[in-house]
Structure formats: structure tokens, C-alpha cells
Design a protein that fits this description.
The protein is mainly alpha-helical and about 375 residues long. It has 2 domains: about 130 residues, no CATH class; about 160 residues, no CATH class. Helix content is about 60%, strand content about 0%. Strands 1-2 form a two-stranded antiparallel ribbon.
Amino acid sequence: MRTLAFALALSLYACGGAAPVAKPPVVVAGPDFARDEDRVLRLLASADGRFAARAGIVSDESELRGAGVQAILSEDTTTVMEGGRADLFSFDTRARALDAATKMLAQYTQNDRQNGLEIERLKYTLEAERARLAYERELPAGAAPLFVGLAATWPVNAPPADAEQHDARLAKRFEQVMAALGPISPEVRDELEASLDPIDASLEPRLRALEKRLRELAAPLAKHAPPPAPSTLPCKLTGSPGTTLGRMIAPPERQRVCVIVKTLASAPVDPLVAMSLHDDVVVALWALAIASGLAPSAATGGPRPMAETSPHQEASWTRRAALHPGEAIDTALAIDWILSDLQKNASAWDSLGDAPIDLAIRELAR
């Protein structure tokens, strides 16, 4: 049949028939980072309602349904749909979204002149969300942010029938956490300890000098002044028009840095602000001491907060120093860098937008 068709075409050509018209070459569009960045952010938003709220993304029904379809295809029996989306305990759904986003971003390098910084920001974001997933997956330790997230993302004014179903699913998640209660195995403890980065020996004297400087700036305040009231609104930096990630609400681990940047970009360091910053540095020093092997009760006996703190507040700061030392230390390093040239650095950071601390300082120091 193929031979007959070829012979027919050849005879037509020999008889003066029209020669085959050459088809125009297929033009394959090159990578479109803006398009793919939006796809990556929408992927993450469809799998984690907290990320959707930070990014201001409202996932459409097909995106939310896609997570459920992928769970079925993957024979994933752990995914639970809540309010039309996978709940935060659906760890495998979140992992699949991160894997797909990472694959989509693999074609881009940070050497891209136009989008290099935003590409790096996005890769940092994927790493941070993957670390958040790994932490929260380890029940019961990761349960607190999960339950807070469930409360924050539950639709308001839900019908009574939905509320009853929500309560039933929530009870099952509580049972899942309770079932995970028990002593941490030596293997897990060794793995956690091995994951800590080596402590830079120059950090402690640097932070102690900063603590002393801030204590002197706050000295005009009466002893044990009450701390300033914390902001109840999520913080986001101004960011440049060319960044999507930099203009998003800062993630939980950088909310405090965001508040500090916004505060120092708009006002001088008065004694009350200095006192608040001083206590951030104190928590960082506690974190350094605990990471170096000191018991939390001994670490908190060193430098002390200047603000009048309740036992609940001090316990919260101690937990932060012990469980999230990187966040506490990064906050202090951000304060140290901003105060090295307050008039310039705070406003420049606000204009840069949200970014991991080391990336922000690197970019702003150029």
C-alpha cells in the first residue's frame, strides 16, 4: 500500500502535477519563567491552603480536584479532602505537588540574567516547603502548626452539615496524632542531631555585642517595661514590581523579620523598639547555647529579656530557641545587618521584598 501511494505521487509529479508544498517549520516556544512560576505557585496552593492564603491564590475547582485524582491514581489512602481541598495532614499529596513543581523548575538556572534572583527565590521556597512538610510529617512533633493551619483555612460560615463532617474528620486527625505519641527513638534523635548545621564560632560574640548595644539603646525605659503588642495581621514587604514571591505574605519563619523590616523602614530605633529587638537577640543567644549542648533551663539563665514577660511568653520563646534555632538566629542576624546602616538597609530590604535571610543580605550588600 505504501509502495502504491509512493508510485502515484511520483507519477503525478512526473506529469507536471503540483510539487508538495513544504510545511512551515514548527516553532517551539522557549521557557516562559513567568508562566511556569505561576504554575508552580498554583500547584503549591492547591495542595496547601496556608500557602494559598499567603500567595493570595484562589484555586479553581479543577486544580483542587486534580489533587484528589492524583491521590486515587497513586493509590494514596491517606489523603483527606476537606472543604473541597486536601487537608494539611495529606502529606503525600503535598509531596506530589512539590515533586511536580521541582520538575517544572528544573529547566531554569540562577544564571538567567533577567530572572536569576526570582528563580533562586522560588527554589528556596520549594526547599522551605519541603522542609516544612518533613517537619510536620513527624507526628506528634509537627502537629501544632497543622492544627493551627486547619483552623486558619477552614471556610467561614460553613453549612451545619459541612461542620459536622469537618468535626468527624478532625477527630480522626486527633486520633492519628495521639497514636503517634511516644518516646523519640534513638535513631530519630541521632538523625535530628546530625541535621543541625555546625555552629559558627563567631556568632556568639557578635550577638552578645549586639545584645549589649540594644540594651544600652533601651536603657531609658523603666525596668521591666511591658513588651509592645504584637501585630495580629500577617506581614508582607513592599517588594519590587518584578517579583511575585517578594510581595507575598512572609512565611511563618520570617514573619518576625518582616515586622522588624517594616518597623525600622518607617521609624527610628526608639527605646521601646530597641527593647523588643534586644529580646529577639536574647532568644537567639538561648538558641546558640541550646544548640551547643546546654539544657534549656540553663540557657535561659544567661542573658535575660528586658521586657516584662509572663511565664507563658518565656516558655514560648524557650520553645522557639530549642525547636527552631535557625529562625531565632536568622532574626538576630537580620537585626544586626539592618542596624549596620539603618537609614539605608531597612528601606532597601522592604523594596527587595521577602527572601531568605542569607539571600536578602547577599543581594542588598552588592
